Amino acid sequence: VAAEITVSPLPAMLDGGAMIVLQDRTADEQAEQMRRDFVANVSHELRTPLTAMTGFIETLRGPARDDAAARDRFLDIMEREAGRMNRLIQDLLSLSRVQSEERRRPSTLLDLPLLLRGVVATMAPQAEAAGLRIETEGLEERQRLPGDPDQLVQVFQNLIENAIKYGASGGLVRVGMRRIDHEPLLRGPGWAVHVEDRGEGIDEMHLPRLTERFYRVDTHRSRAQGGTGLGLAIVKHIVNRHRGRLKIESRKGQGSRFTVILPETLSRG
Ligand code: ADP
């Protein structure tokens, strides 16, 4: 329960002082506020591309009607904006599905290095197009652990995609995994998978909030890269479902390392 402190001026007859009203904000009220903020954010995120598209439709009907070059350019922009809305809706659906499954433990045994090699292969063309090389380490041997394959693919796709988007200047992304005999955060053995880039890095003050829905360090930059601001929130919920941990380390101007620590068995905690 958080306390909200309101300092209000006293009525005129008690002039010269201030009164402190201590009010309890229940967890329910906080949850309700978060829900309202989320709806406001979603509406804003959807309205931005929609406003742009409406504007271009008007221009195409009016001033640009007979200008073929302008028409092509505007149609390209409208296609991009529609793509943005589509990505946002996909991510919202993913997030909602992941949240609703969060309490159900995954039961499949999967080969994690194989899964990671598959994700790296899928992302390689995108990395190459951004002028990056993806280097892997520790993904040669089979290692079985419990997990939801589709969701873990999504986790590592999101992390590698971010490393490509925000790490392009570093030229190199490293993806690897290693065993941890005793991980204090998990109270047992586990596997740590890291995705590391040498890009722009993240200022320390942002790190604690990075997995919040729609939290971005630079909204303009994220949008320009096609980001929805939901990628890391999705990652966080999937990792929670696997009883794992997400560790974020970064230094401004030097790069970032995102580590997903997964327990070897799901019998604990
Ligand atoms: P987005 O769709 O904006 O990329 P994410 O939830 O995936 O949303 O990430 C949230 C924010 O965290 C990003 O907008 C970006 O500012 C920051 N971020 C994520 N990954 C990295 C990275 N590898 N390097 C620098 N900044 C990053």
From TrEMBL:
<dbReference type="GO" id="GO:0005886">
    <property type="term" value="C:plasma membrane"/>
</dbReference>
<keyword id="KW-0597">Phosphoprotein</keyword>
<keyword id="KW-0902">Two-component regulatory system</keyword>
<keyword id="KW-0418">Kinase</keyword>
<dbReference type="GO" id="GO:0005524">
    <property type="term" value="F:ATP binding"/>
</dbReference>
<dbReference type="GO" id="GO:0004721">
    <property type="term" value="F:phosphoprotein phosphatase activity"/>
</dbReference>
<protein>
    <recommendedName>
        <fullName>histidine kinase</fullName>
        <ecNumber>2.7.13.3</ecNumber>
    </recommendedName>
</protein>
<keyword id="KW-0547">Nucleotide-binding</keyword>
<keyword id="KW-0808">Transferase</keyword>
<keyword id="KW-0472">Membrane</keyword>
<dbReference type="GO" id="GO:0016036">
    <property type="term" value="P:cellular response to phosphate starvation"/>
</dbReference>
<feature type="domain" description="Histidine kinase">
    <location>
        <begin position="41"/>
        <end position="266"/>
    </location>
</feature>
<keyword id="KW-1003">Cell membrane</keyword>
<dbReference type="GO" id="GO:0000155">
    <property type="term" value="F:phosphorelay sensor kinase activity"/>
</dbReference>
<keyword id="KW-0067">ATP-binding</keyword>
